[in-house]
Amino acid sequence: MTYKITGLTPAAHAPLFAMSDAELAAINARRVTAAASNGFPCRVSLEDAKEGERLILFHHVSHDVATPYRSAYAVYIREAAQQAAVYVDQTPPVFEGRPIALRGFDAAGNLRNAALALPGQADMRIRELFEADEIAYIHAHNAAHGCFSAAIERT
Description:
alpha+beta
């Protein structure tokens, strides 16, 4: 069994960086500068921004399904992130050092199981969830803040 974790497509969000602060505010987004080298996880590169890097914080629909499990929350993307990260059978840096909530969904978008992965456990928990044939894909969320981290699919 293999799995793939992919970051968000940067081209879909590139126009945000060209917007003024007023235009961003009108869509409930904002430009921020990372105040530390941890705590500003980019959903494109799947790594934390370095202190001083510019990011956009915006409302992202991460689970756009016609079920009660539709989900959206605030996420960061780094201005410097030019390519979506791809990890096959390994977890990205953004999963390390923080607890990750894993939500396993069936093909119709309904939650079927979930697991909490403490630092260093994400790979193991992903594999455990995918042992059930009914789990079509998994969404990872930062457990403390609840924000979407990445989508995980079977390959």
